Amino acid sequence: MSNSAGHAVVTGSSSGIGRAIAEALLEAGWRVSGLDVAQSPISHEAFEAVATDLSRGEAIAAAAASLQDADALVHAAGVLRVGSLGELDHAAGELMWRLHVDAAARLADALVPAMAARGRGRVVFVGSRVAQGMPGRGQYAATKAALVALARSWAAEVAARGVTVNVVSPAATATGMLQDPARAGSAPRLPPIGRLIEPGEIAALVGFLLSPSAAAITGQDIAICGGASLPR
Q1: Catalytic option among 100, 140, 143, 206
Q2: Is the whole model's pTM more than 0.90, yes or no?
Q3: Which of 20, 50, 123, 131 could form a disulfide with 199 if both were Cys (CB 3.0 to 4.6 A apart)?
């Protein structure tokens, strides 16, 4: 698989981490199909915006039907809703599950078999350090933990056929999600490096995992956490 000729499907490409990943891949020579319900600001001859409501299975199926030549899938779309026991928003929990987990499952089910048949492919899910648990974010944490379980299971299924499946789990990242009113009262925790993670730093790691040099890395949950996982 050559970066100069690869076709990557990137969800959430209109903003934040997804946009940073799409732009980094375009700069590296990839052709990128960006799946997002919002209009993408990216303007590049190798970028195609595919308007898709990733919370709806039929919309995902329609988009995936035209993406069977994809060499890579990066699922970065996401939302954060917070709530403690006794105050859970069950509709918000269902939305996060559909967007984070069900969308990942539907896209992988539609695209990865073709990758495996060709003997090459890359899948990266954007997870979260919160997957290990955090007060007030149980529903969100559960969806991100589910991505790790899916990735490890599917990595085992396709490892012998040239496809890798990994998760990149950032700590608090400098994106518009931090200003989302839905997370009022749940301020991000700065990691020990004293600043938020930059989307470009996540994009750089994803770019490496999509490269030929990362062929031996699969089934891993890789933290980019600024030291947040270190003992304190």
Answers
A1: 140
A2: yes
A3: 20
In angstroms, how far is CA 131 from the centroid of its own chain?
14
Give exposure, 22-59, as e/b (b: 16+ Cβ within 10 Å): bbbbbeeebbbbbbbeeebebeeeebbbbebbbbbeeb
pLDDT tens track for 13-67: 999 999 999 999 999 999 999 999 999 999 999 999 999 999 999 999 999 999 9
CB-based contact 197:191 (threshold 8 Å): yes
Distance, in Å, from the CA atom of 136 to the CA atom of 166, rounded to the nearest integer, reads: 26
DSSP 66: T
Of the candidates 20, 57, 54, which has an alpha carbon nearest to the alpha carbon of residue 35?
Answer: 54
Known catalytic membership, residue 140: yes
Find tokens 């060709």 and name the residue.
118
- φ/ψ of residue 16, rounded to 5: 55, -140
- The torsion defined by the Cα of 46, 50, 51 and 52, in degrees rounded to 10, comes to -140
Which of 63-66's residues contact partners 24+ apart within 8 Å by CB, and which partners? 63/35, 64/106, 64/107, 64/110, 64/111, 65/110
Q: Residue 69: what residue type?
A: D
